[in-house]
Design goal:
Blueprint (H helix, E strand, L loop, with lengths): L2 E3 L2 H10 L14 E6 L4 E3 L7 E7 L2 E6 L5 E7 L3 E3 L1 H5 L7 E4 L3 E7 H7 L4 H27 L2 H12 L4 E2 L3 H7 L4 H13 L3 E4 L2 E4 L2 H8 L5
Length: 224
């Protein structure tokens, strides 16, 4: 669930920065808490109970789903400002996808029990939720098209840029291939092709980005 940070000043700064209090007709600030998620930590996991509605206010996370055969598929990356838990609030508490921090990440959370008690009939809040769900539906259509129609080279470029540490890419290649819906061999061939074009370079157990401009041209912000 992440670490609850007891710092009213930082919490208030995030609330004001993203005008989270304006989402509600009622004053919900007394029920807001700040959570920190370290790199690699899950904010939620698919089919596990989710107890909070989260406002994603700092950091970066990858969003993926787990298919019936047990394999994972990348959907997108989250950067501020996003909402996590709106689908679960409307229908059930079990997460419909997994969200994993890829750098130190902060969320402002409100327990579902307080949302349902004080805001279940709040038209202002419900309008906000509906707008968010409409946006997610549009993005889902886009991501489905990306996974079906874009060559792996473009998707790999986008994934490298979204997961790079300074100028290096150190992700597990087996997991990367699964998330991108590709075979391990296909991923290796694509990475080798990028190396041949002097866009990246293999260095021991990681890849170094040589030409970020070309890589960004290939990425086209696919998963943003």
């Amino acid at each position: 669930m992440g670490e609850k940070i007891v710092d009213k000043k930082i919490l208030e700064n995030y609330i004001n920065k993203y005008q989270i209090g304006e989402v509600f007709s009622n004053d919900m600030k007394p029920y807001m808490h700040l959570f920190k998620f370290n790199k690699g930590e899950h904010i939620c996991r698919v089919q596990e109970d989710l107890e909070y509605l989260y406002f994603f206010v700092s950091g970066k996370a990858k969003v993926y789903t787990v298919m019936s055969n047990g394999k994972s598929l990348l959907l997108c990356f989250y950067t501020p400002f996003k909402v996590i838990g709106d689908v679960e609030f409307m229908y059930f508490n079990k997460a419909d996808c997994s969200v994993q921090a890829i750098e130190e990440t902060y969320c402002v959370g409100i327990a579902f029990e307080h949302i349902r008690k004080y805001s279940i009939e709040d038209s202002k809040f419900l309008r906000f939720i509906c707008d968010g769900l409409a946006e997610k539906l549009t993005r889902l259509s886009k991501y489905s098209s990306i996974n079906l129609l874009y060559p792996l080279e473009n998707r790999v470029a986008s994934y490298i840029l979204s997961n790079k540490e300074k100028n290096t890419f150190k992700e597990n290649l087996t997991e990367t291939a699964e998330l991108l819906g590709a075979s391990y061999r296909h991923l290796l061939r694509t990475l080798n092709s990028l190396c041949t074009k002097s866009i990246i370079r293999k260095t021991r157990n990681y890849y170094e980005i040589i030409d970020e401009d070309i890589l960004r041209g290939l990425a086209e912000d696919l998963y943003e």
